[in-house]
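Could you help me review a protein record that somebody else here produced? Do not assume that whoever made the record got everything right. The record follows directly below this note.
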Amino acid sequence: MTFADMVKVLHAKVLVGEEKIDNPARTACCSDLMSDVLAFVNEKTVLITGLTNPHVLRTADMLDLKCLVFARGKVPTDDILEAAEEQGLIVMTTKETAFTTCGLLYEAGLRGVPIEWPEEEQA
């Protein structure tokens, strides 16, 4: 799946990085807790969130994420978008909830980031 495919599936609007939307998206994660993203994401992935604050950009930068999808029609401020552009991110917004966004992308073939749990924590 490409980022362009994601735009179609989500009826999203690209806010930054339109020149990169033909690149592939391999995995996605969804969280409003950036500490969870930092703890569990180990791939260059897509982050789906409803947060539009600078912590999202810092997290994306630390993990070398490729795309931010803001759910619920959220649009970050111009300074956040400028910083995202400087980081080389693709940023889009969709009116779908985070749950629906994940479901639509999963249905279209995009999968979540695999998480490796320690042996003793597995159920």
Q: What stands out?
A: The chain has a mean pLDDT of 92.
